[in-house]
Amino acid sequence: MSELEKPKIGTYKHHLLVCTGPRCTPNDESDALFDRLGDVLKAAGLTTGEARVKRTRTGCFAACQGGPVMCIQPDGVWYYNVTPANLQRIVTEHLLGGAAVEELVFHRGPSVAD
């Protein structure tokens, strides 16, 4: 019996989870947001090095209102209404500046600092 090879993932500072479940946005805005996120992160210099941000498309978060919905780990910050303009604010203010965009936060879970 052969052994499974252990997976490898590059180092990253933040992990963005974007809900692409079918109920929180009516017209596939979440998929478009996820696709746009790659370009926004690249433009902000967040796709390589120590500040690298990993992004993952997820199924339903069971927070089926106010989407698109995104969670930033390890900060434990959950955002709603992540429009293209709000996405840019989240990248600039939270990921680059270190301060959550409070008016878009709908939940805080455990973080590394807890």
TrEMBL record:
Record InterPro entries: Thioredoxin-like_sf (IPR036249)
Protein name: (2Fe-2S) ferredoxin domain-containing protein
Pfam families membership: 2Fe-2S_thioredx
Originating organism: Denitromonas ohlonensis
Gene3D superfamilies in alphabetical order: Glutaredoxin (3.40.30.10)
